[in-house]
């Protein structure tokens, strides 16, 4: 259905957010582009937030929004959950400090909890972010297999470092054939020798993946995959099961990057949903309860390559000729296994065990009502996703991969998102929707009403 009016929502946006605009201008004197993380930027300028409570955030102009970004999915209990705050207060009161720089009992308690939910994680290591987790998983796989190259999927994001910052959102003109994608650099400063780029695989195309991986099996250490691309485009059952069998046969480590999908698809992540056990798993976002946190875990024999008991520490000045630092994968970090974060994460798991079904039910309600509304307006749309994550995709076609998503009407989706910001519905334009335990039927109905107004404005009816 053709749009009946272009109301130029940028004008309303500018009128409603003058303090955000001023703040960003001031920030440009401190940070390049006024932003300390590129992902936070969007045109014409991002909204600057000052407060969060439950399902809502408030900007510096005192406008309140229903928050569906939730720090890119990290805040599955919403903002300022009282039980998490209590757990943090109690931890600080009991310990008398924020950090020890030494082992702490919660490292084991928390680890057992993760192993119960993710049985494939027979041994695990804590990191300070999801990006650090994927980087460590890659290093572990390379050390275990004694191979260097990584394979990743077109459209999948695993962090902002050179090894995997390829073909996340390439233009189709430079991406190559659909069944043999070309690695496309996504940043300046990537000086990688030809042949060392990651092998780019087509998502949900098992035949092509098998051909590409068999041809390169002697050089591929690991296949890293988001089981749901971007957290919302699911792998087919046949594809994910076939990829597991193939990597096992070829001696390639299979890494599930569940930074987005962990706890949001099921408590046990996408691997619980599919019934497939990867060799390594990375977690982040939800399990950090709003703090910077990540986990790498997997098969005992693979994870043991990080054990300091099998080799010396890089800082051990008494290394012998029989035990050297290079005998193990060195992994360290002052804040790894931060006790305050572990306490918050444990409480998050407790709450989700109790309330996660309500989050899934509320997400399904929002998806169903949105799809029904778009049908009434005569606008093609699919709410694509599983569990507590989905994205609004303007298309009549099924979505299986990055190229299918690119064929949808992204420009209209972006316009709708900007209108919705003016209506008090918050997510970064073109981003997925994440729900929390704080979202109720009231927020769902408020969102549907906002969508109704926006679609009526744009399409009539």
TrEMBL record:
Classification lineage: Bacteria, Bacillati, Bacillota, Bacilli, Bacillales
InterPro entries listed in its UniProt record: Aminotrans_3 (IPR005814), Aminotrans_3_PPA_site (IPR049704), PyrdxlP-dep_Trfase (IPR015424), PyrdxlP-dep_Trfase_major (IPR015421), PyrdxlP-dep_Trfase_small (IPR015422)
Organism in which the protein naturally occurs: Halalkalibacterium halodurans (strain ATCC BAA-125 / DSM 18197 / FERM 7344 / JCM 9153 / C-125)
The protein's name: Glutamate-1-semialdehyde 2,1-aminomutase
Family membership noted in the UniProt record: Belongs to the class-III pyridoxal-phosphate-dependent aminotransferase family.
Positions with biased composition (Basic and acidic residues): 1-13
GO molecular function: pyridoxal phosphate binding; transaminase activity
Coiled coil: none
Chain segments carrying region Disordered: 1-20
Database matches in PANTHER family: GLUTAMATE-1-SEMIALDEHYDE 2,1-AMINOMUTASE (PTHR43713), GLUTAMATE-1-SEMIALDEHYDE 2,1-AMINOMUTASE 1, CHLOROPLASTIC-RELATED (PTHR43713:SF3)
Superkingdom of source: Bacteria
């Amino acid at each position: 259905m053709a749009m009946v009016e272009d109301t130029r929502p940028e004008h309303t946006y500018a009128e409603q957010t003058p303090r955000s605009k001023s703040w960003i201008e001031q920030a440009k004197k401190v940070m390049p582009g006024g932003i300390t993380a590129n992902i936070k930027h969007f045109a014409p300028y991002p909204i600057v937030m000052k407060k969060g409570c439950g399902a809502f955030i408030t900007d510096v102009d005192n406008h309140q929004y229903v928050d569906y970004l939730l720090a890119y999915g990290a805040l599955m209990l919403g903002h300022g959950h009282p039980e998490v705050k209590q757990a943090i207060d109690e931890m600080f009161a009991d310990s008398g400090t924020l950090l020890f720089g030494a082992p702490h009992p919660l490292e084991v308690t928390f680890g057992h909890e993760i192993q119960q939910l993710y049985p494939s994680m027979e041994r695990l290591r804590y990191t300070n972010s999801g990006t650090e987790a994927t980087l460590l998983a890659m290093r572990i796989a390379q050390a275990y297999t004694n191979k260097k190259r990584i394979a990743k999927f077109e459209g999948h994001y695993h962090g902002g470092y050179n090894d995997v910052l390829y073909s996340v959102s390439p233009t189709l003109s430079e991406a190559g054939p659909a069944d043999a994608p070309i690695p496309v650099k996504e940043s300046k400063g990537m000086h990688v020798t030809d042949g060392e780029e990651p092998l780019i695989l087509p998502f949900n195309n098992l035949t092509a993946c098998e051909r590409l991986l068999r041809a390169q099996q002697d050089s591929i250490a690991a296949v890293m995959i988001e089981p749901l691309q971007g957290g919302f485009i699911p792998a087919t059952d046949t594809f994910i099961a076939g990829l597991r069998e193939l990597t096992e046969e070829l001696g390639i480590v299979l890494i599930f990057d569940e930074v987005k999908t962990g706890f949001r698809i099921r408590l046990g992540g996408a691997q619980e949903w599919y019934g497939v056990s990867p060799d390594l798993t990375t977690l982040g976002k939800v399990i950090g309860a709003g703090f910077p946190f990540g986990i790498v875990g997997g098969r005992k024999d693979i994870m043991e390559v990080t054990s300091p008991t099998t080799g010396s520490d890089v800082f051990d000045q008494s290394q012998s000729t029989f035990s050297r630092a290079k005998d193990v994968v060195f992994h360290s970090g002052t804040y790894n296994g931060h006790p305050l974060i572990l306490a918050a994460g444990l409480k998050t798991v407790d709450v989700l065990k109790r309330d996660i079904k309500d989050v899934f039910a509320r997400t399904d309600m929002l998806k169903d009502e949105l799809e029904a509304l778009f049908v009434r307006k005569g606008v093609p749309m699919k709410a694509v996703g599983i569990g507590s994550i989905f994205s609004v995709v303007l298309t009549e076609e099924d979505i299986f991969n990055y190229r299918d998503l690119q064929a949808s009407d992204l420009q209209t989706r972006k316009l709708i998102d900007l209108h919705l910001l003016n209506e008090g519905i918050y997510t970064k334009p073109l981003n997925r929707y994440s729900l929390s335990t704080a979202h109720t039927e009231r927020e769902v109905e408020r969102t549907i009403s906002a969508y109704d107004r926006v679609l009526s404005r744009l399409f009539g009816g």
